[in-house]
Amino acid sequence: MADFDGMYLTKFPGVVRALVLLGADRSTAEDLAQESFLIALHRWDTVGRYNKPEAWVARTAVNKWRQFGRTARRRHDVLSGVASADHSGEQRGFEGSDRHIDVLQALAKLTRRQREVLALYYLLDHTVSEVAATLNIAEGTVKSTLHDARSALAKWLAPGYADDPREGGARSAG
After folding, report:
1. CB-count exposure of residue 106 (10 Å: 0-12, 13-18, 19+)
2. Residue 164: pLDDT over 80
3. Helix axes 4-22 and 53-80, enclosed angle (nearest 10)
4. What is the pTM of this model?
């Protein structure tokens, strides 16, 4: 059985960063991550026996973020009286240089699924198969989503980089 305290101390910051990448502000990301770890703690007799309990926590956090977004959209729709809310994908949570702003603007242009896959793969260091299991999608979908997201980011952030469509992060998606 895994050690909850050790997992919490080492994995909490990554879950928060992943949620920020998905679009949460820092405070919301911390709240959702904390809630996800709390659920894991209450179910630790079961979750602690998993090979990677941190993957279960990550999935719970992503699902909580999705639920948070749906609730916020419904609230906005009801309060504004509009059939559908504006989902501009505005990203907050990083402060600092113009480069961070450029990265956040580029990430905001990606689809929700692309941001989820990138967050799980790069920030939480999940394998392709773990990302697939967490998001309940095929491994091939994870690979193509990683490729498409990296290609789009490369185009937006470093136009010369986009010439090699299979270039990407430190790990190969294939």
Report:
1. middle
2. no
3. 40
4. 0.55
Cα gap 22→33, rounded to integer Å = 13
User: Is residue 85 classed exposed, middle or buried when 0-12, 13-18 and 19+ CB atoms within 10 A define those classes?
Assistant: middle
pLDDT above 60: residue 21: yes
Position 105 scores a pLDDT of 80
